[in-house]
Known about the structure:
By secondary structure, the chain is of the alpha+beta class. The protein is built from seven helices and four strands. Helix 1 links the parallel strand 1 (3-7) and strand 2. The longest helix is centred in the N-terminal third of the chain and has 12 residues, at 12-23. The radius of gyration is 14 Å and the shape is globular. The mean pLDDT is 92.
Amino acid sequence: MSLTLYGIPHCSTVKKARLWLAEHAIPATFYDFKKQGVTEALLTAWVAQGGTLDTLLNRRGTTWRGLSPADQALAAQPEKALTLLCTYPSLIKRPVLTDGVTLTIGFSEAAYAARFAAVA
């Protein structure tokens, strides 16, 4: 199983997830979506893996609060929400962990422990 952890390296939640994976000897490739970008195809794949645009969209962060009301309104339309997430990758809730089949959005020790219970 090849894991990829998507996020921003300086995000405190991403740091916690990376540390948890390292402490449990679970290898994951890190993908910095601010530097490497995010495509609509990738976001669509995440939705197909069980995520939702509503789950992926971080409405609590400073990037969201910095958007104009018109841009925020775009989030209600799926196609425009994808474009918004590609344009502003900081709007994606972090981290996103996937093996191409299973998707985990955000980080909590309990969720990661449950996901990797068979590994432990």
